[in-house]
Every structure is written in structure tokens, then in C-alpha cells.
Amino acid sequence: MTKIIPVLFISILETSSFFVPASAVGQRPALEDKDILKMASAARDALARQHIEGCIVIADPDGMPLYVQRQVDATPNCLASALAKAKSAAFFKTDTNTAYQSLLKGEVHNLAVPDLSSNPGGLPLYVGKTIVGSIAISTPDGEKDIAVAHAAASAL
């Protein structure tokens, strides 16, 4: 599943010395390599079942790529799209299909938001209420991107 990493919060006292009370040390879930590889494998399997090739990106909670794959016959621009979807899903903590659906309704204001992808196929990944990363799939078919991303995320 996921590992728990310690998170340290440092307080500065008026004397300018550092003080770390025990209550300030917390923990948060994080993706492990085995989680990433399991999701990537599930994504590849789901793409094969859909008879399509594409790009897979799994990112950390800051949207930084942890896993990137462009399949051999994938379209040339799928990698840029998958990277943008993964970053967007992590940054905004929402499915990129939400912004896509807004565009279909004529709500174009999202186009002005930096780093917000309006292409379906990017999902945030949560453990409980904590975001641990995101996954994004990019192919020429947004509906297939959504299905594959959900299949991969369910492997977590």
C-alpha cells in the first residue's frame, strides 16, 4: 500500500534558537515504489484492453513526475498532455475531467488558470483525506483516458 513518512514542523523561538516539540512531528501517507509500479502495470493492462497506446504519468502531491512512460506507438504530443494532467490533478486536487466538463458547458474561464488542464484523464490519488499524488493517462480518446486512469488508480 503506502508508506508513512515523518513530517517535521519547526518552530522558531523568540531567542532565535530552534525548538521542535514532540507534538509537532506528524506523519502523512506517501506513495511507495511498489505502489507506483502496480498502478503503472494496471494502466498498461487497461490500455491493452482498450486496444490503444498512450502515455502514463504518476506524480507526487506537488505534481512532480515519479513515473513516466510513452508507449512506442503513442501519439507524439501525449507525453506533454499526460504531464500537464498529472500536474493539474495534483495541484488542484481534482479530476481534470471536471475542467473539461466546464468547457463543454461553455465556461471558458478555466482556460486562463495556469497549470489547469482541461483534458480528461488526470486523477488525484488519496489515502484517506490526504493527497499522495496523481495519475494521468493520455491517448487520442479522452473517454478511454478516464477509464484507464480509474483502473490504474484502483490498483492503489
From TrEMBL:
Coiled-coil residues: none
Superkingdom, natural source: Bacteria
Matches recorded under Pfam families: HbpS-like
Alphabetized InterPro entries for the sequence: GlcG_carb_metab_protein (IPR052517), PduO/GlcC-like (IPR005624), PduO/GlcC-like_sf (IPR038084)
Protein name, UniProt field: Heme-binding protein
Organism: Gluconobacter cadivus
Lineage per the UniProt record: Bacteria, Pseudomonadati, Pseudomonadota, Alphaproteobacteria, Acetobacterales
